[in-house]
Known about the structure:
15 helices; 317 residues
Amino acid sequence: MYEFSSGFANDILAMIAFREQIGVTTYEYLLSVFDQFCRKYYQNATVLTREIILDWLTNEKERHNCVEHNAVAVRQLGKFIAAESKPAYILPNNVLPVRTRSSPQILTNKELQELFIAADHIDYPHPNSYTNVVAPVLFRLLYTCGLRPNEGRELKREHVDLTSGSILIVHNKQKKERIVVMSDDMRKLCVEYEQKWRIIAADNPYFFPGENNQPYTAQQLGRLFRYCCRKADNGRGNAAFARVRPYDLRHRFATTIIQRWVTEKRDLYAMLPYLRAYMGHKSFASTEYYIHLLPETIMDISGIDWTVFESLIPEVK
């Protein structure tokens, strides 16, 4: 665990412990970046002020993540400190523009192959020389195991068993551990990757090493992913590559599994609970949502009463 040492260290640690206890997101990594920022620019500060928060959110040089995510983290910190009857500025909910949730972009087999080929031949102009080693493996792992981007980015080496191919996921939304299993091809790719990893970042505890013994940040992954998408598109103007996000690899995994079950005439009523557990969904609605993303040709297959699922899946607006 990162060693918090700013004037807000005790408050942050108390908040993390409390949120872990009730089983909700702790924002530990985001607050570790905030802690470093405060230690550098506000060494003597012990009161969370509006000035400090806005400085961090607008400081492009020091901010390493999505500004909206940072805003949520410091808003929760302010609320926690205020609940302890101590002075603290609470960032208003409307301080940032509301972002419209984008619809999943499901890549075709050909588009997915082009993305992976682009990652395999990456010439990413970034001082972090690990990108050409990390991108091919990280992208494929997100897809083949249906991981959330943060679950892949924050994966620690100690949680990857390259003998059995099992991965222990601990950084998820519900703070509940689960195990996913890699395909044999994915496991072999990770074995080859780990041999390179030992050379380039032997002291980094993360399976996908970032800088300063930290994991890849969401911002770094996003930039790397978009760069590979542009390479895959190669100037053709394919709208899919312009819209797709790292999280869509998880969506692609889920729809691929369900489509396979439909083709094999498996009982979806019996199979969906297994997919729910594998993907770490809190509710069945989150898993059943993927039925809406299936191609119309699959939806037209007889023998499945799709109306049973319609009442379980919330309407997407």
